[in-house]
Amino acid sequence: MWAGFFVFIAIMLTIDMMMLGGGKAHKVHAREALAWTIVWVALALMFNLLLWWYLGRIFDVTIANEKALQFLTGYLIEKSLSVDNIFIFIVIFSYFSIPAEYQRRVLQYGVLGAIAMRFVLILFGIWLVTKAYWILYVFGAFLVVTGVKMFVFAEHKTDLAQNPILHWMRRHLRVTDVLYGEQFFIWKQRLLYVTPLFMVLVFIEISDLIFAVDSIPAIFAITKDPFIVFTSNIFAILGLRSLYFLIADMADRFYLLKYGLAIILIFIGCKMLLAYWYHMPTWVALGVIAAILLGCILLSRRKLNR
Predict the structure, then answer these.
(1) What are the CA-CA distances from residue 144 to residues 139, 214, 240, 283 (Å)?
(2) Separation between Cα atoms, residue 306 and residue 304, nearest integer Å
(3) What does the longest C-alpha to C-alpha distance in the chain come to?
(4) Where are the alpha helices (DSSP H) in 132-195?
(5) 194 pairs with which residues across the strands?
(6) Section 30-40 average pLDDT
(7) What are the angstrom distances between the C-alpha of 138 and each of 86, 224, 241, 269?
């Protein structure tokens, strides 16, 4: 199963990177982004169906149903939380004034970096849970605190100009004043310079890391199965690039989603903290999360139409 999953992901990533813009600067339009978003969601659902079928043959229907439901819930959690990361991407690209045709390559490397970080962090998280089960309660408390902060500061505007990482790079790196196409580095007078696009890439990777630290503990509230945790995470972020191009121009239309994501984190954190006394069925957690997301989307649209 692991080998088949990695082969499948490698093939699909290659196709995605070749077709979503190809090897040249390219502005990804909404129709193209929508098509690829649908493809990635369909592939995730197809994978879940195959997983259910395979486990049903190897074990029994009860195990197959539970694992498939865990995957779907974990995928929905990670997919919904990735929307908050997209809001950060919008701020980063806007601050550095990166044209739409150059954003594709940055996000391409961002997805690859996110996959590598997820693999390491998930293995580390599983090792922690195996060695000390009580760490799940720490994860739960962390999610509650993060959710409360996200809710309180939902309208807070990120000011990259005051970011210490940005100041450090400008002091220690030779940075060009302008972009040089999609290049991250250039040579000038035998000296290596980094372009603003490289600085954007650094911020995207840091954002992915912070997002992973927030989101990975959330799925441990659903399952501790490393295969389900990893595959649901990876499927969620594989469509992140196309999802960004799809909603980048519509972020203001779903402004209540930030509050919904905060509520989801609080809900998942409470679920983990109460796990010793009450085991919430996976289908209940799935229903609550889906209801929160749908409610925020509908309320956002209703207020905008007034």
Answers:
(1) 9, 11, 25, 21
(2) 5
(3) 67
(4) 135-152, 164-172
(5) 175, 185
(6) 82
(7) 27, 15, 31, 9
